[in-house]
């Protein structure tokens, strides 16, 4: 039995466990799969399952109108909701605890893989009418939610590897670049970054069907473009 002081110390040490960038990026990629609902709204930011839920729209009607994507390939078609910030924070904390009790100073992907099904078991709701669950080989996942959630993570990681995002992740690089701050950036450099963002947007919308991770990338790029544009206006006004 831990004393209150020992419990506080344990919590501090667990929180101090590092989550490496490559693991964070894979969690981010996983979570991006589930929010998109392309027919939910007229404005780009509102193409989400939350929009459908808050509007009280019939789920079957919303999914019937959502066509064009490969519903077997798209992991987001297997769920009725996305993940909240609280869900992700809880996942990170439990992954840190798993790493801590294994004696590791940093979270590994396997730590995430082991705790994710238990953290999200009552959070990520399956759409049992999705084509994925109709396949005979996937029938056990209708009741075995823990195995289904682990399968989702494995499938997300396989797609991450296929896209080679560990080595070629321009959106992640732009996000990291922005996080370093804007102090002292020149107008020339700002314009250069804006041009790169515009090219990436053009590449991602050209001839592609919208999937969850692509939608997430476009939202990030739009945000970065707005921030750099505002900064450019500020530079000119000085």
Descriptive terms for the model:
mainly alpha, 11 helices
What does this structure look like?
This protein has 238 residues and is an all-alpha fold. It folds into two domains: 8-162, Helicase, Ruva Protein, domain 3; 170-237, no CATH class. The protein has eleven helices and no strands. Helix 10 packs antiparallel against helix 11. The longest helix has 26 residues, at 212-237.
Q: Count up the domains.
A: 2
| Named CATH topology of the largest domain | Helicase, Ruva Protein, domain 3
CATH class of the largest domain reads Mainly Alpha
**Annotation field: number of helices:** 11
Query: Largest beta sheet, briefly?
Result: none
CATH superfamily of the largest domain: Magnesium chelatase subunit I, C-Terminal domain
What is the percent of helical residues? 55-70%
Class computed from helices, strands and strand pairing: mainly alpha
Q: What is the CATH architecture descriptor of the largest domain?
A: Orthogonal Bundle
The N- and C-terminal alpha carbons lie at a distance of 61 Å
Return residue spans where pLDDT drops below 50 for at least 5 consecutive residues: none
Q: In sequence order, what are the helices and strands, one letter per element?
A: HHHHHHHHHHH
Overall average residue pLDDT: 93
């Amino acid at each position: 039995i831990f004393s209150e002081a020992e419990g506080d110390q344990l919590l501090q040490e667990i929180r101090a466990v590092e989550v490496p960038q490559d693991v964070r990026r894979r969690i981010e990629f996983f979570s991006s799969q589930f929010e998109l609902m392309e027919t939910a709204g007229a404005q780009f930011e509102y193409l989400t399952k939350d929009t459908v839920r808050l509007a009280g729209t019939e789920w079957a009607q919303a999914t019937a109108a959502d066509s064009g994507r490969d519903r077997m390939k798209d992991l987001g078609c297997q769920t009725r909701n996305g993940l909240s910030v609280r869900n992700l924070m809880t996942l990170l904390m439990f992954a840190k605890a798993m790493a801590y009790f294994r004696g590791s100073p940093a979270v590994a992907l396997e730590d995430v893989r082991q705790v994710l099904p238990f953290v999200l078991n009552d959070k990520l709701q399956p759409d049992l009418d999705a084509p994925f669950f109709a396949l005979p080989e996937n029938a056990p996942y209708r009741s075995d939610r823990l195995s289904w959630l682990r399968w989702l993570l494995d499938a997300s990681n396989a797609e991450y590897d296929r896209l080679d995002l560990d080595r070629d992740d321009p959106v992640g690089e732009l996000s990291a670049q922005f996080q370093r701050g804007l102090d002292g950036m020149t107008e020339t450099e700002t314009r250069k970054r804006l041009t790169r963002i515009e090219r990436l947007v053009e590449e991602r919308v050209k001839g592609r069907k919208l999937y969850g991770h692509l939608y997430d990338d476009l939202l990030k790029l739009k945000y970065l473009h707005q921030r750099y544009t505002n900064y450019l206006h500020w530079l000119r006004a000085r």
